[in-house]
Amino acid sequence: MTEILPLRLGINIDHVATIRNARGGNAPDPVRAALLAIEAGADGITAHLREDRRHIRDEDMARLNLEITKPLNFEMAATEEMKAIALRVKPHAVCLVPEKRQERTTEGGLDIVGQREHLAPYIAELTKAGIRVSLFIEADAGPIEMAKKLGAPVIELHTGAYCEALEHGDRTKVDREFARLDTGAALAGRLGLEVHAGHGLDFYSAEQVAMLPEVRELNIGHFLVGEGFFIGLPLAIRQMRAAMDRGRAKARART
Q1: For the structural domain made of 8-254, what CATH number should be given?
Q2: Domain residues of the chain, as ranges?
Q3: Which residues contact 128 (CB under 8 A, 6 or more apart)?
Q4: Quick one: which of 252, 253, 254, 220 has its CA closest to 239?
Q5: pTM
Q6: pLDDT per position as a tens digit, 73-129
Q7: Which residues are catalytic?
Q8: Of 47, 201, 204, 248, which has the fewest Cβ atoms less than 10 A away?
Q9: What is d(CA 248, CA 66) in angstroms, rounded to the nearest whole number?
């Protein structure tokens, strides 16, 4: 029986920076948002430094690493430029994600099977530097098993397809995608990988994913930044935590 451990909440502050960059200048400050999120109960902060710097900037990463009191999760593409920045900043963790310049947001999981020869030494170098490596992947056996072979201790399951199915009211696809997440998380747990999940989560979908006992952390950003416009970021984070707690309680009731 899988032990149901506490579920952590990581807050992605990318889109605070998106709003700042829309007008230029320094406001709103993503580092201030990170500090506010931690005060409201976040267990960590996630930030994605993209190749085109469309939201988070290099100086944001440096300030986050210096100023926040919780773990910093540096989302990045597996490029030499980003590796050099990660080795200089030394965040708590790096999450390797796919990245295309023309995409609005991350589209699907990283192809770690096809890129295994590139990723193996890349992961090894980051690990040697004391940085915990996570791989953002689909909840399928192939990439999950490859993550284990590559020596990454953590995977983050892409929840986008599940969330899109919920948004479109496609019940058949909702059930199929949730079952895929459930099966993938269980496989990862058996392999000894720590399982995180994220992308597109809102209060309802986060509560459902929190029912998966192997999932240890949810990383959520865009939805909470949006809710912050209406109810304030601290309250949005507290409501997300409550939704996650409800899901965890359901998981315990099922065991």
Answers
A1: 3.20.20.70
A2: 8-254
A3: none
A4: 220
A5: 0.95
A6: 999 999 999 999 999 999 999 999 997 655 444 567 999 999 999 999 999 999 999
A7: 48, 75, 199
A8: 204
A9: 32
